[in-house]
Design goal:
With 512 residues, this protein is an alpha/beta fold. The protein has 13 helices and 17 strands.
Length: 512
């Protein structure tokens, strides 16, 4: 425990905030931002962990994040973060009441029914969550010590079976032994739940298999079936094997497959089915932002009004044609313009999964009748409407703040607030407060939130918080992260100017 970092004041968008604004400002909106929870069924056959090792030499290559040593603990991390966020009833800077929380996509890892139900129970609370699939009496996946399928490229918390070499995570990177971890990770626990209403945005992992492949009947058969690919023999192209898994096609010779217990709850969900599941909830609002129109039309964009002076717009930036980066279809873009123009007297805050820079996916999806709308075009349209002051998103797993100033060079524009994930170090969320400074400017305060958990101890695995603590330590030592994104001092944490921030923007309601 210790004091939080100071809030770095950023004024790249112009405006002249008064030195005494702290004595005159009033809070307009306070909310919690969760993103990229990646609640994962680590035993699922519809995963391609085996390609991750080929990324060890090239940590920013195409196979990154196919496997993480700590991913079996994703539900415990989410519950501990939710519990921590629940302890805040007011904003830490302005003291305004926490109005809502929002998850900006990739809430689940693999668009599976069981993952989505776990996620909803985690955010709703008041449920007994059993984070297990397949055989409920044992773990069946790449991390166990089954001598027939043991592979030293994966971390094995129980150690190697007799006569097998130790794993690379332990011998090369110092990962601990944690006997009983796989059983502890599968134990039922009571979910805490948020104390506020919560909303959801659609992410590529919520809508695409492994965040990249469209759902098909063949892929659904893989996910619910009895065979899990765990490796390839020497000389077999791992790309070919991964492509076969993610298309439901026959596997190339030399693919290593282990039998697992089939599970119909691993079934893959379409966008319409995902939306419908948000209406099966103990939390509020029912649907978590998705509307009856979304259910009829199988769309995932909507609006809500969280405060009298604020209009919130939630986008669906997932390209249903596939690939991880995003874009908008033309009807949604036209709808977005109309919504912004209709809110000229209010402040507009956008939410989405993808960032401006990651909306580069021009591939045509099913139903597209024209070119996809990419980030630069969306950005230009937003800058033409001064009522847009903030865009909150995820996808990159990095704490990052970007200023987008009006092209004319005149003061104004909007801030892009991107928050780190729960699956990668540093496993953080953010509290966001919007204030009227009473001097012709607004301030957006972003305060980074770490989940409250004890010091990690691999011999103490008796609660979600203790398991979350171990996950955080393992995530910080993920060897690909340490040589890739986190090779610098800050890494995915972002620089100080991306973490606790005060982001000043001229108040568009007071423009001359």
């Amino acid at each position: 425990d210790g004091p939080g970092e100071p809030h770095a004041v950023r004024t790249e968008l112009g405006g002249a905030p008064a030195p005494d604004r702290g004595s005159r400002r009033r809070p307009l909106l306070t909310f919690g931002h969760l993103t990229d929870l990646h609640v994962v069924d680590a035993q699922s056959p519809a995963r391609v962990e085996f390609v991750d090792r080929y990324n060890d030499t090239y940590p920013s290559g195409p196979f990154a994040a196919a496997y993480r040593p700590h991913e079996v603990l994703a539900t415990q991390v989410a519950d501990t973060m939710v519990s921590t966020l629940r302890s805040f009833s007011r904003g830490p800077v302005l003291g305004g009441p926490l109005t809502f929380s929002i998850s900006t996509g990739d809430a689940v890892d693999n668009c599976q029914f069981n993952e989505l139900r776990w996620m909803i129970d985690l955010l709703d609370g008041k449920a007994t969550l059993h984070p297990d699939s397949g055989d409920r009496t044992r773990y069946e996946g790449v991390a166990d010590s089954d001598p027939h399928y043991y592979d030293p490229h994966y971390w094995h918390p129980d150690g190697p079976p007799a006569g097998k070499p130790d794993d690379v995570a332990h011998t090369t990177y110092g990962f601990p032994r944690a006997p009983g971890l796989l059983d502890a990770a599968r134990q039922p626990f009571s979910t805490t739940g948020l104390s506020t209403p919560w909303f959801a945005a659609h992410g590529n992992h919520d809508g695409l298999v492994q965040g990249n492949a469209p759902v098909t009947a063949a892929l659904d058969a893989v996910a619910t079936g009895p065979a899990k690919v765990v490796g390839v023999q020497q000389g077999v192209d791992p790309n070919s094997a991964a492509s076969a898994v993610l298309s439901g096609k026959p596997l190339p010779p030399g693919t290593i497959v282990r039998p697992v217990t089939p599970d119909p709850d691993r079934r893959l969900l379409t966008r319409r089915q995902t939306i419908n599941e948000h209406f099966v909830t103990r939390g509020t609002p029912v649907g978590h932002g998705f509307t009856a129109q979304n259910r009829r039309e199988a769309t995932a964009y909507y609006t809500f009004d969280p405060a009298p002076e604020v209009h919130a717009i939630v986008l669906d930036t997932v390209n249903p044609g596939g690939l991880s980066d995003g874009s908008l279809d033309r009807p949604q873009f036209d709808w977005l313009r109309r919504e912004i123009e209709g809110a000229a007297a209010r402040l507009v805050v956008l939410f989405s999964h993808h960032t401006v820079a990651t909306m580069t996916n021009a591939s045509l999806g099913p139903g597209d009748t024209g070119p996809r709308v990419l980030g630069d075009e969306v950005r230009a349209m937003l800058l033409a409407h001064p009522q847009v002051v903030l865009w909150v998103n995820g996808h990159t797993h990095v704490n990052k703040v970007t200023s987008h100033r009006r092209a004319s060079g005149a003061p104004g524009g909007f801030w892009e607030l991107n928050t780190a994930s729960h699956i990668d170090w540093p496993q953080q969320s953010r509290l966001v407060e919007l204030a009227d400074n009473g001097d012709g400017t607004l301030s957006v305060f972003g305060t980074i939130l770490d989940f409250a958990a004890p010091e990690a101890d691999p011999t103490k695995l008796d609660s979600p918080a203790r398991l979350a603590a171990l996950s955080r330590e393992l995530a910080a030592n993920d060897w690909q992260e340490r040589s890739g994104h986190s090779a610098t001092v800050d890494g995915r944490r972002g620089a100080a100017a991306d973490r606790n921030v005060e982001l000043v923007v001229p108040d568009p309601r007071r423009r001359s």
